[in-house]
């Protein structure tokens, strides 16, 4: 009987029978598919599960057997803290700012090949929560979209990309070491080898002394060949990231400051710099962002190479100058 108390019509019965037949056929086909491909499907499920577990473990961050990028090193050297006042930039900031000697006590977050697009990703994804103030060091390379980078930074990994695939070469490196140790421990009967390994480097690159002039000249020519031709389309992503960071800082009531990092005045600035600097300065001025221009302020004796201050002479001078500038800004804001 149907809802009206009448017996179902023949057409309705045929439709119901046809629906049941189709449903049964689909289920039967699905079951046959799973039976036929059960091994492959189980293998795929095992891979997905293992990759999820490895991602949760995150050995690129948690295990000293694996290579560490500069973002991971920053967090490691601050006891795992992911919040605080920050001095962000690339390796020029790492070389120039001595955090332990600074009265400003900013977290030195100089990242190898770091760019403003990296900072945007860090803030956008909540990987680090900047508090009190954000200082950005911009050098001749910080704004270049075409500048190569460290692909192991976590914000470059799409959510759908398998962890083991993303960091495959590092798994091969560390896995080869582990297999070698296992062989030595089990076959050569050396138990100490089972737990011994060479921890991967956890410190950042610092710059001491002075690079040879011939080497610096070759580096200058290499920079010019790779990037000297750049125009605004080659740094448009970083300009947009700058605008995003300015808006973010305003929304968070976070004081934002910018330092133009020193360039060795013994060498010509990159050809794109006048236009780039003019464009960036205009946007910073429009947003009222305090700026310290040290681009051409330092004597060549303070440099290790073209863009990195040496640790013995340049970095202490730079750190004191930035501290004094930040202190003057803090004083003026209170008056």
Q: In a few lines, what is going on in this structure?
A:
This is SGNH/GDSL hydrolase family protein. The protein is α/β, with parallel strands linked by helices and 335 residues long. The chain contains 12 helices and 5 strands.
> Can you list the strand order of the major beta sheet?
2-1-3-4-5
- Looking at CATH, the homologous superfamily of the largest domain is SGNH hydrolase
Elements, N to C (H/E)? HHHHEHEHEHHHHEHEH
Q: How many β strands by DSSP?
A: 5
Number of separate structural domains: 2
Protein name: SGNH/GDSL hydrolase family protein
Task: Give an account of the 3D structure.
The protein starts with 9 loop residues before the first helix and ends with a helix. It folds into two domains: 10-57; 63-151 and 202-334, Rossmann fold (3-Layer(aba) Sandwich). The protein is of the alpha/beta class and 335 residues long. The protein contains twelve helices and five strands. 26% of the residues are buried.
């Amino acid at each position: 009987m149907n809802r009206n108390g009448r017996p179902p019509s023949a057409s309705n019965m045929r439709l119901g029978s046809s629906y049941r037949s189709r449903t049964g056929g689909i289920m039967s086909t699905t079951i046959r598919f799973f039976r036929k491909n059960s091994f492959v499907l189980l293998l795929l499920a095992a891979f997905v599960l293992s990759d999820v577990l490895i991602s949760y473990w995150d050995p690129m961050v948690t295990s000293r057997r694996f290579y560490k990028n500069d973002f991971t090193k920053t967090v490691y050297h601050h006891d795992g803290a992911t919040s605080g006042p920050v001095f962000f930039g690339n390796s020029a900031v790492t070389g120039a700012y001595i955090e332990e000697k600074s009265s400003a006590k900013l977290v030195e977050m100089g990242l190898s090949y770091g760019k403003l697009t990296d900072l945007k990703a860090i803030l956008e994804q909540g990987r680090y929560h900047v508090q009190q103030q954000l200082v950005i060091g911009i050098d001749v390379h910080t704004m270049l979209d075409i500048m190569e980078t460290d692909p192991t930074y976590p914000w470059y990994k799409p959510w759908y990309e398998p962890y083991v695939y993303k960091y495959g070469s590092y798994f091969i490196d560390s896995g080869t070491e582990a297999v070698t140790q296992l062989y030595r421990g089990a076959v050569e009967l050396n138990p100490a080898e089972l737990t011994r390994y060479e921890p991967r480097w956890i410190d950042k690159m610092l710059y001491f002394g002075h690079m040879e002039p011939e080497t610096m000249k070759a580096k200058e020519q290499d920079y010019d060949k790779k990037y000297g031709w750049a125009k605004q389309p080659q740094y448009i992503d970083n300009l947009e990231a700058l605008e995003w960071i300015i808006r973010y800082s305003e929304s968070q009531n976070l004081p934002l400051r910018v330092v133009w990092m020193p360039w060795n005045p013994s060498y010509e600035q990159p050809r794109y710099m006048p236009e780039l600097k003019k464009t960036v300065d205009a946007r910073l001025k429009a947003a009222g962002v305090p700026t310290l221009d040290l681009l051409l302020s330092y004597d060549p004796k303070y440099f290790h190479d073209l863009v990195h201050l040496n640790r013995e002479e340049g970095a202490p001078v730079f750190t004191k100058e930035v501290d004094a500038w930040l202190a003057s800004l803090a004083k003026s804001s209170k008056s």
